[in-house]
Design a protein that fits this description.
By secondary structure, the chain is α+β, with helices and mostly antiparallel strands. The chain has 4 helices and 5 strands; from the N terminus they run ααβββββαα.
Length: about 170
C-alpha cells in the first residue's frame, strides 16, 4: 500500500529456483543476483517500487526525530476508499555476516503499527524483537538481541521505529 501500489509487491533478488531459508553451502553470493532490472509498460509501477524502497529507508533513518509530529509520512494508494486509511508495510530480507535477517514495519499516518526483526542463524527463524503496538510495553525482545533494548524502547514514542532510535 504505497502510492500506486495497492497490493503486496516484491522485488526478489535471489536466483530463480532458490526457495530455501539459506543456501546449503552457506554461500549467499551463489544464490543472489547483484543486479536487477525492472521492466514493464509505462505507468506500471516500476518507479513506485523504487520509491517505496527509498521511503522505507528514510523512515528507518529519520523516524527517531518524529516524536513531536502530529502525523508521520504515509503515502497510501488513494484510488479506493479502503486503501487510503489502511496501513502500509515494508520488509527487507538481507544477510549480515552470512546470516539471513528479515526486518520490517507497518505504519499509518498516526504512527507505527508494528515492527519486527528476525534472523535465521541455523536455518530456523529466530525472532530478535517484535513490536505489536505504539507503546514500549508492546515490544518483546529475544535474549539473542544484545544491548539496552528495554531502556531504548522507553525513549520511543508511537511515531519512532525501534531500529531508528537504537
Amino acid at each position: 500500500n504505497h502510492k500506486a501500489l495497492r497490493d503486496t509487491t516484491e522485488l526478489v533478488l535471489t536466483r530463480s529456483g532458490f526457495d530455501a531459508v539459506r543456501p546449503k553451502d552457506g554461500d549467499w553470493g551463489a544464490v543472489t543476483n547483484r543486479v536487477a532490472g525492472l521492466f514493464g509498460a509505462n505507468a506500471s509501477g516500476k518507479t513506485t517500487v523504487l520509491d517505496a524502497m527509498a521511503f522505507a529507508v528514510s523512515v528507518i533513518r529519520d523516524s527517531a526525530s518524529w516524536s513531536d509530529r502530529r502525523a508521520i509520512p504515509h503515502r497510501p494508494f488513494l484510488l479506493d476508499g479502503g486503501s487510503a486509511s489502511a496501513t502500509s508495510a515494508y520488509e527487507f530480507d538481507f544477510t549480515v555476516g552470512g546470516v539471513r535477517h528479515v526486518y520490517g514495519f507497518e505504519l499509518r499516518a498516526e504512527g507505527i503499527v508494528s515492527e519486527w526483526l528476525s534472523n535465521f542463524p541455523e536455518g530456523r527463524r529466530r525472532m530478535l524483537f517484535e513490536r505489536t503496538g505504539p507503546d514500549p510495553e508492546d515490544i518483546s525482545f529475544s535474549r539473542h538481541l544484545k544491548g539496552e533494548n528495554v531502556r531504548i524502547s522507553r525513549l520511543m514514542s508511537g511515531k519512532n521505529l525501534f531500529l531508528s532510535v537504537a
